[in-house]
Each structure stands twice: as structure tokens, then as C-alpha cells.
Amino acid sequence: xxxxxxxxxxxxxxxxxxxxxxxxxxxxxxxxxxxxxxxxxxxxxxxxxxxxxxxxxxxxxxxxxxxxxxxxxxxxxxxxxxxxxxxxxxxxxxxxxxxxxxxxxxxxxxxxxxxxxxxxxxxxxxxxxxxxxxxxxxxxxxxxxxxxxxxxxxxxxxxxxxxxxxxxxxxxxxxxxxxxxxxxxxxxxxxxxxxxxxxxxxxxxxxxxxxxxxxxxxxxxxxxxxxxxxxxxxxxxxxxxxxxxxxxxxxxxxxxxxxxxxxxxxxxxxxxxxxxxxxxxxxxxxxxxxxxxxxxxxxxxxxxxxxxxxxxxxxxxxxxxxxxxxxxxxxxxxxxxxxxxxxxxxxxxxxxxxxxxxxxxxxxxxxxxxxxxxxxxxxxxxxxxxxxxxxxxxxxxxxxxxxxxxxxxxxxxxxxxxxxxxxxxxxxxxxxxxxxxxxxxxxxxxxxxxxxxxxxxxxxxxxxxxxxxxxxxxxxxxxxxxxxxxxxxxxxxxxxxxxxxxxxxxxxxxxxxxxxxxxxxxxxxxxxxxxxxxxxxxxxxxxxxxxxxxxxxxxxxxxxxx
Length: 562
Hints:
Elements: E1 2-5, H1 11-21, H2 25-33, H3 39-46, H4 62-74, E2 78-83, H5 87-101, E3 107-110, H6 123-131, E4 134-140, H7 147-155, E5 159-163, E6 177-179, H8 195-209, H9 221-231, H10 237-252, H11 256-262, H12 272-290, H13 293-300, H14 304-339, E7 347-350, H15 359-370, E8 374-380, E9 383-389, H16 396-402, E10 409-412, E11 416-422, H17 426-440, E12 449-452, E13 454-455, H18 463-470, E14 484-491, E15 496-498, E16 504-510, E17 517-521, H19 528-532, E18 537-548, E19 551-561
Parallel strand pairs: 1-12, 2-3, 2-4, 4-5, 5-6, 7-8, 13-14, 17-19
Antiparallel strand pairs: 8-9, 9-11, 10-11, 14-16, 14-18, 15-16, 16-17, 18-19
């Protein structure tokens, strides 16, 4: 692991903020590193308010979208809420459709089939709209690059409103309105909304025209928080506010669909991390293993018994997904081991029989193992489809853009993307992708990095510090859990291996006679010898709480030692 210490602000700046906020210097340093330099910014960070959300009408085309939707309702048109099959897409569809159904009955939902239709707006989806006399499609979490599909809809007399957060291409679709803050010409001040976040801005604008306040829309924020967590967008600015209030809804008054999921797991209070690992995989499993419409049905359900039935079905999909994920990951790792050329900058694997629904998860697993930009391909109809994942600091979307002459279509973000190509282009693409990455990546990025916020002395760690750090939540990109480094550590002699094959490390650490603090290091059992050595060592960790027999104590969550 490569340890990188973040730049330390000047002592004068730290002292000034610490004095203004009446906090310890270590807290002031962490805040400054997050762009917080005065009392008002700190107040907004620690106490998010709905008033901090931006006016939805600042988003380009919002006025056009609202006018067209209101016209559709006045003229009793049929409206189709169309979204992608992942968590961001299905939550977006559940959000906008449930809101519109509060006032207007002629609303249907549509999630494309991952296998027969693929990502985004499909010709089949537009045909469905035509067959059902639908004259307006609201596309969520997709559509900003669907130039041909939107033209096809227009030729059939169907208008399209696009609510997306992906990067647009050079040519925009001829839609009635395009809501996407990543458009260069869009003046919206916050650019990092997820698809469900853009959907929320739409219902915020529609609600305003009906006298509905943002406070009245808070029950919808459980969906937005889930999408923010699952799509791994920055939890900064507006996303922080949406996630903060959304988590409150999940924990205090979750919708029936979430309650049905949570009834199956023993967890009292969920964090954003819990949403990522408990709720999101189950919602995703529907689209991966069966059909995303199952997830929409669960998220919209208002009867608990029916929701529990849906949740049980989705749990079965999730169990099947986990089994396939393990099996395909093992095959992919073996393929890399057998074919890996010395010095390669990428990992690209292919098996025509791999399940398309889990190749994204497999790509993530391979990236964790080999720490290279990774592509996992499978057969999809008469083409090959792939999920791409990247390493920290490398923009895989840009790399794919440079290989676009080999591709049929692609889309995504800096760290995750999807693509399709013709089978005869596979080898050519594989070589081109390797060359693009080799020519552009900083070799340092091929070594996993631990980004350290601050050095700390063990006697600075206290329950008071822990209480303040808990208020930094919700954590995520742009506001990760604070990571500390302490030097000259020693073990009390308590160190032992725990878990299967003793692969985890449990110990109690002190420094220069300080009071020992318990520590757990997951997958650090191989460092046992270093800890038991008489020589002092350095450790990187976050602060955690350990609850045992009703007693809560401070604990170091070790990330690495050396």
C-alpha cells in the first residue's frame, strides 16, 4: 500500500478556525481539508438544512420540463416514467412515478431488460410507449446520449424529457427538455447529482407550482439517499444535504419497501455504508438476475404483506447473484493468472457464458485484486458487452473515448462505465485500450493508496473526538471517513489472529506510555509478526466504536501497518 499524507494547512489557518469554532486543532485541520474555513461553512457542514438546496429552476430546461408535464396532465395524456435497471434508475422511477400518481392517474413505469434491451432508452421501450398510446416519456438516469432513440420517438409523435447526470456527447438529443447539470451550458451550481437527485429536482419544481414545499417532499429522500450511496457520487454540497435527510427517513420512517428489506437484516441504525452493502445490492439484484421492474414494484408498494413477499423474492435473486459473482470472479482471476503478460497496465477478460448481470461486480473484484483499469466482457446477443472499473485517479471514461472507433456505444463516469462492441473488434480494442492506458496513466496509480488526513498522537484520541467525528457523517467521496496515522506504536502483548484462518488481526496499541486502545485490522493477520516484534511500528487507521456486552469503547480500525 502507498501511504499518502494530505497537505497540512498552515498553522495560522488551523489555529484561527480552532479558536473560532472552539474545537481542537486536529478537528480544525480535518475541516479545512474539506474546504471549510469559517463558522458559517462549519455550521452548514454539521447542521445541513433543506434551505441549503438550490432552486431547481436554476437547472437548464427545468421550466420547459415543468410546462410540458403540466400540459400532459391537463390534456390527460399518458406519461411513461422510464429509467435504467440499476439502483439509481429504479429509485428514480419509483420517486417520480409515485409523486405524479399523487395527482394524476395516467402514469406508467418502464425499466428496460438488461439482456434484450441493454442500457438506457431502447427502441423496444419507445415501441411500448407507442403501443400504449403514450405521448410523453420522462427518462431518468439515462438518455443524454440517446440521439437516435429520441429521434425515433419524435417520429412517432412521442415527446421525451431527459433527466440524466452522465456526461453528454458532442451532439444532444432533440428532446423537449434535457435536465443534466453536466451540460456545459447548464448554470446549475452543483454538478454532482445522481440520476435520482435530478429526478428529485424535477419533483421539487413540479411541487413548487402546486404549492408543495421541500419539507413536504422529505419522505422521498430515502430513495435519493440510496441512489447517492449506490452510485458513489460525491457526498458534498447538495448531495450531503439530500443524503443527511434521506438517512433520517430510512432510520426513522422508511417506506414500506425498505422496511420489508430491513426486516430481514438485524441492523438498528443504518449509515451510508450500510445502505451501500445492505439495501443497494438487493435493489440491484432484481435488475441483475430477473428484471428491474421488481425493484420498482417493491419501492412503490404501500402494503407491508405484499412488500414482504416482493422483498423475499428479491432476497432470493440476491443469493443467486452472490453465488454467480463468486463463481465468475474465480474464473476471471484464473484467466488473468493464465494469460497475464508481464508489465500489462490493464486487465481485460472475456467469457461468452458469463452472466451479464454480475460482470460489473466482478470487474470491481478484479480491480481490488490486481489494481489495474479492468474490463469484464460477456456475450450479449450478437455483440460483446463489458463493464469497466478504474483505479483511484484514472479516468476510464476518457480512456474509452479514445478507443471509441472500436466501440458500438459506451457511457459512464470516471471510475465506472459500460460498453458494447462487435466481436471482431475485441482483440483490436483490447490492444488499443492497453496502449491508451499505458501511455496516459501515472504508474503510481497502479499501487493502492491510503490517503491519510492527519498524523495524530494516541493521547489525542478521546470519546469527545469520536463524538465530533461522528458528526462528519454521512461519509462518502469528497468526505471520506477521516484516516489517521500514528508513529512509534507498540502492542501490549495482546495481539492475536481472529476469524477464519486467523486472517484478521486484533491487538491493543499504545505510544510513549499512553493508555492502550483496542484495535482490529481486517485482512491484516499476515502482519502479526510485525506487531509482536519488539520494534515500534507505524499504523494507519480510522476511529471506530466497539460494542460488547452493552459496553461501548473506542477502537482503532487498522487499514495498514509498517
